[in-house]
Amino acid sequence: MAYVETLTGTDMDFGKVLWDALRRNKKFPANGALWLFQPESGEWHFLIATPRVDEVGPRKAYEELSDITRGIPADSSKLLKIELISPKQPFYEALRSVFGKTASVEGARLGNTQIGGRYINDAYLYEIR
Which long-range contacts (CB under 8 A, 24 or more apart) does 93-97 make? Predict the structure, then answer.
């Protein structure tokens, strides 16, 4: 039997603190954030959609993000779960087409559903815009 990681309250709290920090940061725009369970690895990833991926490339975007995460109490295991994506990525565009006009999706769970042709085993949303 394969190991399957559980999304904990600590993970959700970390995501909230990081998302709040990103919303206040004017130099690193972020369009949305969510925890997404990746069944292939049995792990959760914290996806952040930011146009910085397209503007400066992924490597530089991660460097810019590291300046923000320095001020957030977190162990390295949480930081390693962060995945920056382009808001133009088809999966994120599909999420935005479903949730983009919703007043608030914070705390919403998605499970056993399909969006944009991608099966979502489990997800925890903060914001999609």
Answer: 94/118, 95/32, 95/34, 95/128, 96/31, 96/32, 96/128, 96/129
